[in-house]
Amino acid sequence: MTTTERHLYDVVVIGAGGAGLRAAIEARLAGKKTAIISKSLFGKAHTVMAEGGAAAAMGNVNSRDNWMVHFRDTMRGGKFLNNFRMAELHAKEAPERIWELETYGALFDRTKDGKISQRNFGGHEYPRLAHVGDRTGLELIRTLQQKIVSLQQEDYAETGSYDSRIRVFQETTITELLLDGDRVAGAFGYYRDSGEFLLFEAPAVVLATGGVGRSYKVTSNSWEYTGDGHALALRSGATLINMEFLQFHPTGMVWPPSVKGILVTESVRGDGGVLRNSEQKRFMFDYVPDVFRKQYAETEEEADRWYTDPDNNRRPPELLPRDEVARAINSEVKAGRGSPAGGVFLDVSTRLPAEQIIKRLPSMHHQFKELADVDITKEPMEVGPTCHYVMGGVEVDPDTGAAFGSVLGLFAAGEVSGGMHGSNRLGGNSLSDLLVFGKRAGEHAAAYVDTLPKRPKVTRIDVAAAAEVALAPLVRTEGENPYTLQQDLQAVMGDLVGIIRREGELSDALKKLHELRLRVANVAVGGGRRYNPGWHLALDLRNMLIVSECTAKAALEREESRGGHTREDHPAMSPEWRRVNLVCSLDEAGEVHLERKPVPTMRPELLDLFDRSELAKYLTTEELTGLGEE
Ligand code: FAD
């Protein structure tokens, strides 16, 4: 017999990264009783690890910047597959969300004249990333948490309880969403320390669970990122969009093996760092694709001049969007021009004085000294691609964050949602994304609650079923070890659904994932419910598998190369495929189903922001003809 602690809320936010906290603040400001649930300790989320900054066209460092330029860069970075409305809202609202953070107490680095400082990043035409050294995410989380504490203090003054309107449940994992017909009715989960179950009864749930990177061995993601929100959405009848697009960040550590995959921030290149191969050649000049040719320097001299005179020179190719740089590094290593540990060299030591490096990149200096015994003020780093970010995610209404599919009352924001970044995210666009769409999701979740004539009900049968599924790995006396299964899954995804993909390998991956699904259904864990990480992983595996299957299926279906999806057997970008979103759902038998849906057509005034010659690189002849004469 198991007991389940019960809680009643209006809005439950699953995830305490930037998206979750911003959503929770908004729901609470709208007067809703709000719970924030976090799988890890409160304050430990990917958001806190974000280094470079948050992209917002404030125009502080170059006054030519504005939302239209940011929108254009985002669409270019995503190779025009972005949901244009999300990219528009994001570009328009990001500056306000950054300024708002300062009203919550954030303190960004400053320009000489006292404005919020902004730095260069790949794919952004002007310096655009508001930052705090290379620890921007820490300031973001600190500030949002501080805002929550201040709201709790207001609540205490009024009700005598800090938790009366907003409460944080940390080290608590949600394993199931519960429905009443087609409406969200609650969420079921467990405390990680005691293993005890909890039930949240709530008519609205905001998913803000972040990414999926732990399905890959070489990843910048930490242990929590097992695609839980993606899987919860699927199992409750929502849909996922474009799951084939995964961002392999070009610069992860490659040495020593124990830290392989840990991120080396793009700020290193933004601040002047260059990539060289074993022949000491700055190879990125050989990899500028036609679509970007006009915007990137052709010589080292021009590239170097850009850092001090960006108005009269073109950008260095090291600052191409991440997918381009990751593929280039991959090709250099494959051609035998890699570094001893199988990466390439990233050098800032010959580009900036030591004291500048320590001031601008303190975390990187510390990280390499501590983990690899490398002093980046004196020697180059060795770097290579690492699985970093998922562009695909829950298909949402761009304005409200409401999930598409057959379920009502479900919202998603931040990395778990899809569409905003198209086929490739620009660095810095995630921190601003989660502020813009976190706020919107919180606001609309609260508004949705107000529309309900009565609260949906959770049934005892559903709670008992969720408990049974959660306990199954502990009840089984014989079965497979979850750690072995995770390693096998990571091998399938890394080897067959990695940075470069091929039809035969993807088909093979799907077969292997199917076999793994059967094995995961038989996973067994020793020990009890207290502090049992093997049990936690056994439950996460179910999510990782279903999400990996969506990725592999969509990767096989999309016969082109675009952004974070490279098919060796279909190397070109296809204008026809640009019109297609791949939408993943679960059928009644729990099998992954993939469907093609048209990409929404961009409004004419947004299309007008691009030259016709640029649109011709992405759009079909039919679409271009439809635009009429220039
Ligand atoms: P997260 O911050 O990832 O938070 C997810 C939350 O969900 C966590 O609290 C987690 O515990 C919780 N959770 C997950 N599953 C469950 C569950 N089942 N039950 C309960 N809780 C759950 N982006 C930028 O824009 N600029 C940068 O400079 C930058 N640098 C980065 C550096 C690193 C090392 C990494 C890994 C990412 C970086 N990114 C950067 C990307 C960016 O940090 C993330 O995409 C973003 O923070 C995601 O925010 P989020 O709120 O969606 O989710």
Model description:
The protein is α/β, with parallel strands linked by helices. 37% of the residues lie in helices and 16% in strands. It has a five-stranded parallel sheet, with helices on one face. Helix 1 links the parallel strand 2 and strand 3. The longest helix is centred in the last third of the chain and has 25 residues. The protein is globular. The termini are far apart. The mean pLDDT is 95. The chain binds flavin-adenine dinucleotide. It comes from Actinoplanes ianthinogenes. This is Succinate dehydrogenase flavoprotein subunit.
Observed structural traits:
630 residues; alpha/beta; five-stranded parallel sheet; binds flavin-adenine dinucleotide
Low-confidence stretches: none
Shape: globular
Q: Approximately how much helix is present in the residues? A: 25-40%
Terminal CA distance = 72 Å
**SS-based structural class?**
alpha/beta
Radius of gyration over alpha carbons?
24 Å
Spatial order of the strands in the main sheet? Answer: 7-3-2-11-18
Residues in β-strands, percent? 15-25%
Give the bound compounds. flavin-adenine dinucleotide
Largest sheet: 5 strands, parallel
Q: Mean of residue pLDDT?
A: 95
- Counted beta strands: 22
Please tally the helical runs, counting DSSP H or I stretches of 4 or more residues. 19
